[in-house]
Amino acid sequence: MAGEHHNHGITDARDHLRAHSDLVLPSVDPRSTPGYDGDKESGAADLIAGLAELSEFQERLFAAGQKGAQDSVLLVLQAMDSAGKGGIVRHVVGGVDPQGVELAAFKAPTEEELAHDFLWRVQKRVPRPGFIGVFDRSHYEDVLIGRVRELAEPDELERRYGAIVDFERRLVAQGTRVVKVMLHMSYEEQGERLMERLERPDKHWKFNSADVDERAIWPAYQYAYQEAIQRTSTDEAPWFVVPADRKWYARLAVQAILIETLEDIDPQWPRAEFDVEEQMARLRATM
Amino acid sequence: MAGEHHNHGITDARDHLRAHSDLVLPSVDPRSTPGYDGDKESGAADLIAGLAELSEFQERLFAAGQKGAQDSVLLVLQAMDSAGKGGIVRHVVGGVDPQGVELAAFKAPTEEELAHDFLWRVQKRVPRPGFIGVFDRSHYEDVLIGRVRELAEPDELERRYGAIVDFERRLVAQGTRVVKVMLHMSYEEQGERLMERLERPDKHWKFNSADVDERAIWPAYQYAYQEAIQRTSTDEAPWFVVPADRKWYARLAVQAILIETLEDIDPQWPRAEFDVEEQMARLRATM
After folding, report:
1. Which among A39, A43, A28, A15 has a CA at the least distance from the CA of A252?
2. CB–CB of A274 and B97 under 8 A?
3. What phi and psi values does residue B69 have, to the nearest 5 degrees?
4. What would the pLDDT profile of B117-169 be if each residue is shown by its tens digit?
5. Segment 116-175 of chain A within 8 Å of chain B by CB
6. Complex ipTM, two decimals?
């Protein structure tokens, strides 16, 4: 059960987790639980409590969007393999009405996608008004694997940082709150999670031998993340670095970030666009 | 709590609810609970119990689909306004991993959609292998409102019945289980639900004065549903008429239909496509 001191989950999660242009990624402890003094058990209870709150906000957001409000939320999830993106989608986003969620999972780009600018496929999947959009991987892959695997020249990477900031600024100006989360897992924890996938036959389908190859260049990825976050964390579209070695904490933290973002929007039930009494009378005549 | 007699939810739900070419819709009591002798309380408990089962099947289906299996499920939901389609999506489909669900809500067709054959927009939204697709309204609107509001000539309606049967047969041949559900609500119950929307300011956004207009021609819709179901309920793509005056029953019934459908597929965890020992050794070398 939730104790008295943390029955509201994490307070001011965004302040605790916000990453700025001076981020030093190794200074964030992947096992830490910023802003939360509860344990796994209380964390699970607080997650369930928060779900009701998130659900109500989501429904209001959707309702307002159906009646002309322009607000939406875009949650961008980035992380190394096995850091828990899927668990966030399942246990945080999965708690709200699927009718109000637009989920986009970006894989390696197709030939058609590669023929276009890197933002082309992403722009098509931004959430409509009233929706919570989730990017499971995103345009950030193009400055992460793009950099680490030298798929792009340094000049092109520079251009992309700028293009990303501009793109997200335009999104925000149109009414989309852009919230970017890096799930920050330790090298040791990833080793254990990948080993678990190998030990359990029902997890074999999630294992990819390329994950071990990428692991061999872990520091290059960490550096690419740090650089990408430094270059693209703006007041309009902030990055949050969420310690993710404890899955329960990461879920609670992303839930809290979403709830705080929706609190800012404060979506309201739309007023009736019809005369309620008149419609009641019409309806009564049919009963 | 679930009692001893119904702790597995509805047994053989599909047999109880299957509609054939001789369907007489008024013979189905919207308040009945075919195949279930529990009450609202046990129904809610059984729904939660079934969720775990449905979730596991869905994950297996998804995993198999990632590794080449062609199976998928398409749930088509049709009903009069306020019958509870949204609740099915929220409480039945919403219980499984959103990463394995493709939800398509079909509204009044756009100009572009109207310029194409009525199946054009629908074909684009069929589920990929491994996914559970849900159509919230569907191509059936084109033989329901299409018929009632005389948006199509009788010849064209005839053509559409045939085109639907052919289209669904092709889908099934490609590996998609097509499951069609009509939520069958009484006229009286709809009156109460629409009145509730008018009485609650947080429900006003769901109310549409056109719902009262459609209500005035309720029998025409019932007849159009009966005809559509008679003409398109095939062994490959059966219709189920689910009594829906009790929301808890309708949810339990649709969940049971989905579980039985997935039991037929019996998706298996894919075998590893790599040498497990070899990958373990590689991974260990990085730890």
Report:
1. A43
2. no
3. -65, 145
4. 999 999 999 999 999 999 999 999 999 999 999 999 999 999 999 999 999 99
5. 136
6. 0.93
